[in-house]
Amino acid sequence: MNNPVIKNILLVTITGTAFLIVSIVAGLCIGSSDYGPHYILKAIFNRIEPDPNFEMILWQLRFPRVLLAVIAGGALSLGGLVFQALLRNPLSEPYILGISGGSAIGAIIGIQLGFSYFPGVSFLAFSGSLITLIAVMIISSGNNIGKDSMILSGVMINAFCSAVIMFLISISIDYKIHNIMFWLMGDFSSADPKQALLLLKIILPCFLIIFIFSNKMNILLSGREMASSMGINVKKVMIILLVVTSLMVSVTVCYCGLIGFVGLVIPHILRLILGSDHRVLVPASILFGGSYMVLCDLLSRTLPTQADLPVGVITAMTGAPLFIYLLRRVKNVS
Description:
The chain is mainly alpha-helical. The chain has 14 helices and no strands. It has helices at residues 4-29, 37-44, 52-87, 99-112, 117-140, 149-170, 174-184, 193-212, 214-220, 224-229, 234-256, 262-274, 278-302, 311-333. Helix 3 (52-87) packs across helix 12 (262-274). The relative contact order is 0.17.
């Protein structure tokens, strides 16, 4: 236990897990129903006989929604961390780069064709994310690559994806339009236990693979030439990480819709606090990203509005100002 890296990983994991548990308890206990935190905690620990509707509200409505938020937050946060490491740009994030938009196009096509979420819609969403990623990298490549070229390419691709999405919605039959529009803004309200568990089975291997490659991401930060001289197969590592991350993000978009800026906010804050060691940042991004998403979803459904807000509205309101700040900071540095 003398290894400081292992100590840091354990400390971050324990702290992040504790914070995640607190967030999950808050997500389960707070809501619009009459069952307050004290009632729910007493019912869970068998201190009182619960109301017949209690189990339905807690386990069929709130628990799947909280579980889906944890998985989505961890996946999107980790996705942002990986893209920032591989592209060596603190502004890289699946939503900003247009990866999420490409996934959404594939998912909408799958929904309109009547495919099941897995594997049909998920596969099309994954294909859309890969096509978008390849397009961004081709457009931003060249002899004179500026610091913001990848971001500008992503913004351009994202705008194109938004136009395609609007076109697909405009030709949708009426009863699908509302569902697609609400889903596009990020929505956990339709979560069910089977859906959340299936997503977890797909996402967990991605978490594990990225953690295994976390030290290689540290080496890649020193530059491709340096990494190659240290025996790293740079092309192979980048392809594996980009494909795994695109799969993780696309499946998340497929089930949860477009939720932006999570991959920007959480990795940036964690990097400021914990440093740049990805062996520590990977578990931290998963745990704190999941916690952040649960709290954003809790805020979206408890604000005094006529209906629940899409969680993507909350993440955009918190993430967009930070993106502007980071963009100005990067320009000032360059």
